[in-house]
Specification:
- This protein is an alpha/beta fold.
- Helices cover about 30% and strands about 15% of the residues.
- The protein contains nine helices and eight strands.
- Strands 2-1-3-4-6-5-8-7 form an eight-stranded mixed sheet, with helices on both faces.
- Strand 7, helix 8 and strand 8 form a beta-alpha-beta unit.
Length: about 280
């Protein structure tokens, strides 16, 4: 007598957390983001072995080690390049890239543009604290031009990078902003981003209370977006260009089809591939 395989039970958020304890500073918003990511996986009833989390360098890029999913901790700014390659090679996996504003928008800025443009079906979660936290408080691409610090007396005087506007212009299919201090809303937004087709971008305002203690005030400043999301890029652009950076929620949902690969019908052995390149 044979019995059919029993379906796997839906895991709890705890099932996605590894035994490694995070080493972020006390009060860092990334603790909450990690919790939201695992809650999102549980909401979607995913299994750890079907998820891959890819990161670069920085405080937030430690996240893969703190989960039980497959993970890849790459080099500075290259998380999206590695995540794109992984998703195209293993399209059945749920691929999430995690990073920060320095890793993603400075050295990784070019990869960010083209990941949005390619529209591969994956999710990019960026923990933005407007500062390089791991390397002791230098201004990042999203730092306010007048932020005064020991490393930038009087401020940089440079206009801050606007990642949501750039993501929209470059072709991201799903754009949202959330706040680390609201883990349930963040979990729901990340789950929605993962479910959306194509490239999804979620900006998480994640305070760095060590180098930007004034960011504790973000809890009183964030608010639900005053209007519903739109599928009109022109309307979304107008909203984002006049946004003060504190509106929370899904801001744009596009309708572009996700990039599709055309896999070879018959897989080739490594020796056969080598032969094609022989001179």
């Amino acid at each position: 007598m044979t019995t059919s395989a029993q379906p796997q039970a839906a895991p709890t958020p705890q099932a996605f957390k590894s035994d490694y304890k995070p080493v972020w500073c006390p009060g860092c918003g990334d603790y909450s983001v990690l919790s939201s990511v695992t809650k999102a996986f549980a909401l979607l009833e995913l299994q750890p072995e079907n998820i891959a989390i890819v990161s670069g360098i920085g405080c937030s890029s430690r996240i893969p080690a703190y989960t039980t999913c497959y993970g890849f901790h790459g080099v500075h700014g290259r998380a999206l390049a590695a995540a794109t390659g992984l998703k195209l090679a293993r399209p059945e996996l749920t691929v999430v890239a995690a990073g920060g504003d320095g890793d993603g928008y400075s050295i990784g800025g070019n990869h960010f543009l083209h990941a949005c443009r390619r529209n591969v079906d994956m999710t990019y979660v960026v923990m933005d604290n407007h500062v390089y936290g791991m390397t002791k408080g230098q201004p990042s691409p999203t730092t306010e031009p007048d932020w005064d610090s020991k490393l930038s007396p009087g401020g940089t005087g440079m206009r801050a990078f606007n990642p949501l506007v750039i993501a929209l212009a470059a072709g991201a299919n799903f754009i949202a902003r959330t706040f680390a201090g609201d883990p349930n809303t963040t979990a729901a937004l990340i789950a929605e981003a993962i479910s959306a087709p194509g490239f999804s971008f979620v900006e998480v305002l994640s305070p760095c209370v060590t180098f930007r203690p004034e960011q504790r005030e973000w809890k009183q400043m964030v608010r639900p977006a005053p209007v519903q999301w739109t599928d009109d890029p022109a309307r979304a652009a107008r909203r984002l260009m006049t946004d003060d950076g504190m509106n929370i929620g899904v801001l744009y949902k596009g309708s572009r089809a996700a990039y599709r690969t055309h896999a070879a019908k018959t897989p080739k052995r490594p020796a056969e591939l080598e032969e094609e390149f022989r001179i």
